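Rotation project, supervised by the postdoc (A.L.). Task for the rotation student: set up a whole-complex structure prediction and record inputs and outputs verbatim in this book. Inputs entered:
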Amino acid sequence: MALAGHPGLTGAANKQNHEGEGAVDGMSAISERPVDIGVADRPSAGRSETPTAADGLGRGQRDGARSPAEAEEVLVLSGLTKVYEPTPRWMRVLARTHIKSDVLALDGIDLTVRAGEICAIVGPNGAGKTTLFRIIVGLTTATSGEGTLLGLDVERDSEQIRQVVGWMPSDDRSLLMRATARENLHMHGRLQGMSPRLMATRIPEVLATVDLESRIDTVVAGLSAGMKARLRLARALLSGPRVLILDEPTGAVDPIAAHGLLDLITDLVQRERLAVLISSHRLEEIEALRSQALLLDKGRVKYFGDLDSLREQWERPQLELVFASTDAADQAAADLTSLGLELTVDGPTVRCWLKVRDGAGDVLAALGAGARQVRHVREIPMPLRDLIARAYRHDQTAEGGPT
Amino acid sequence: MSLAYTAPIGRRGLWRKSLDTCAAYVRIDLVEERMFPATTILRYAAVVFPVLLYFFQGSFLNATDAFAFMLIGASVTAGFQDALTALTNRLQFAQERGTLETYLVEPVPWALIPIAMNIWRSVTGTVMAAFMIAFGSLLGAQIEWRSIPLALLVFLVGIAACNAIGTLAASFIILFKRGEPVIMLYSLAAGVLGGTLFPISVLPEWIRWVSYLVPHSYVIAAERQLLMNDPPAEGLSPLVSLAILTGFSVIMFAIGLTVFDRSLRLARKLGILSI
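Outputs recorded:
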């Protein structure tokens, strides 16, 4: 086995492999090939360079020389479009269709997520977030466009993709409520192809990672919402995925538990260089993850990039000026209004929205001698919620919609 | 601690995937049984009553053979019913509960799921039929015990045929979200056409041919030939019934899995796979 040199591969694991557990159906042959796809060939801190089902299967990525940036690419979507159609007429004899006409759920989505990157999918309900996830894990198909994950085609190689993706659905209903945490993970592990012996060590390890070790034999129905969320994460992590898809992972979790969960995810991404797709309605969480952001609206990409660039592009911070007196504030407000600034006055406090990010000096300069009456100046950054809302509003304006 | 998977999960062959899938689902079924022991006990207690019903009916008719005749038919039907309804109930429950999506994102062929989901109920259906026969025997039904192994084989092949029909019903659930119509129609038809309580020779000739399309009729006829001390004179020999049943199971499974696969593809395209 060419795996001997891999730092994270223990002797026990090697032995297990030789015994045939997990090394089924030609896995040895795959491992002996020079690994040249995705992230498997790139050393990373703490990550064992263990080939997975994707190794040797990623046709597209094996072909030709690839740049280092391309080699890091884990998920690549290109022009992905999904149109939900009404059920065929013959089916309506037995069941009503839930849509009457075509619904465009995704419209030409382009997205690249690299190893060690978190990409937050943000958008209102019906924006297409879940459809995007469902296409990646094979629960539905794209109408047009292409998608690859570690070189595997999302349409054709769905079964292999499900081997390397850890999927954390949005609600607890995906867990077997009447089974224990161990049994839930055991079922998933077995379907992933893990041997009972491997699971005996792996399940407690993964539960320890999500701080649920003491609840290993607790029936899921008896766990709190936060614990259930951590169990769903443990299930997604069990087989050592290369990609995590987290659909509103903190939906029903209290803010403190949610913070812990996100810390854990961030830590895993750094340590294991996982590629993560995450959707959440809690924008403060997205900000805390310091991730890439894909803003979706009605199936279209409104923005894709890092949050700092989003701020650069869209931020309109507030400038708070506290004057020595109310009269001075009123005078300053009149001066600034004549310059076309939006503002509010509250006693001696004037708050104005800057037209450009670095416009505080311009405002003070515009006050002239009145600037001497300023006792306190503070720039208030725009909350991410407002920032995103502004980005959405801008596009609606551009399309002739309401501002 | 590194979470990187320390043993490679390679490409598994279909055989290994089938084993893994069946083992996973049977294990979770055992967990369910262990969680609700009273349900299991009551399920077996309930079948005591039909046996008593046919016992008293046999006494009323003053015919011990009639009791054994009806007992065998009823046992087969009850055992098959367990296997037939389990899959549709479970699949529908998973679909409504939200666990189906979790099953479908596992890296195993989807066609294996209905088979694996039905294994445990097939076993319990067999045990239930055996329990009814044993209880009937205690009440005086004359049973040919030496034929039990072959009778069991016939029953298991019959269960396989029912599973194939269950797979068709599963296709129905995937597309239309309800599978009961298929199972209800089949179960009611099988009760009449399979000859549960009477030989199919009493059916009018124009409808009797439909009986030959129902696996129940072959299993019940073969079981009566094998288990009764004084079996009915007419009917196919057990080995012929077994051969027909085997062919029936293979063909029905091929059709069932093809239809199931097509249904999944269509549901996947329409985006209604797990909703």
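Student's summary: Chain B touches chain A through 47 residues (CB under 8 Å).
Supervisor addendum: The CA atoms of residues 68 and 162 of chain B lie 23 Å apart.
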